[in-house]
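Notes from hallway chat w/ T.B., transcribed later so I don't forget. T.B. wanted the structure written out for a chain they're using in a teaching module, and asked if we could keep both sequence and structure tokens in one place. Agreed to drop them here.
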Amino acid sequence: MNGAFREDDVDAVFVILTPQSMTDIETIAREVVKVSQQYSKPVYTSFMGEADVAVGVDILLRNKIPHYILPESMCRSFSRVYRFYRDLDKDMHPQPVYNDIDLKTVNSILDEAIRNNHLYLPEDEAEKILKIYGFPIVPGGLAISPDEAASVAQDIGFPVVMKIISDDIIHKSDIKGVVLNVNSGEEARRTYSDIKEHILQIRPEARIKGIQVSKMILSGEEVILGVKRDPSFGPVIMFGLGGVYVEVFRDVSFRVAPVDEIIADSMIKQIKSYKILDGIRGKTPRDIAAIRDCLMRLSQLAIDCPQISELDINPLIVLEDTKGCYVADARIMLHASTTK
């Protein structure tokens, strides 16, 4: 191992162990730890044998040395790391900078939430941030009474979607806090009361802010966009087709911010279900340019606002080509101690 680490042409060291009956697993694992701590190059390990090498694997993992059951998995992992650092050396395509953003107001909203230990921003508050960043938001408003729900619905036009808004409820659909296809003012009044009564029955401690009444987009493909702040890579941007495709098939793509037009396009085309957006078998093609713009705006938001630990836009409803898209739901999670 020392010889491999000292070679200038070696970027990482792989340790593969296929133990025999007399192999001292524990001693070898401790030696791997001891030697690797003397160098800055990464070390990857694969001790084969599962239960027979468990004591050695435990030593490696407790010392933060990655271990893989199969050498092939180890090689794939290193390959990803190598490609990432190789791409860092490439000439970057400049990410467009959106200058129409009131960053001062955004930081004020986020910092105030953190000071009040308000680390989850539900849909109504998350959409304020997204609107400042130029995301198209589904028309709607927050109602705090049945009559107000009917008034908002009549103003924006039927049908509408009605959703519970509470700082204590993150996944609204899981507790039947969303009602689709509300078609009249009287139905909006009744739905408001029904949702609130139902939520208070199953979550009596929930602090209900009101019911969000939003225009129901009748035609469009649902996609999901997200941000996750990784301790090693920083903000990571996620994209995928919504609904069953992300929940069951995990058909998503990831990129480290910043995301420019070329990277955004590659994210969209990477998912297996891209053909659905592109118009497979006579289906109407969706507005890929609008998705691309949202990914780049999301990238700038993630870079500008280190207070944000996670952000989900789910769904973003994408209309026909050239017709745009709409944010139909969103949530933001904040770091407890980060202010800008």
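Follow-up for T.B.: Residues 71-88 form the longest helix (18 residues). Might be a good example for the class.
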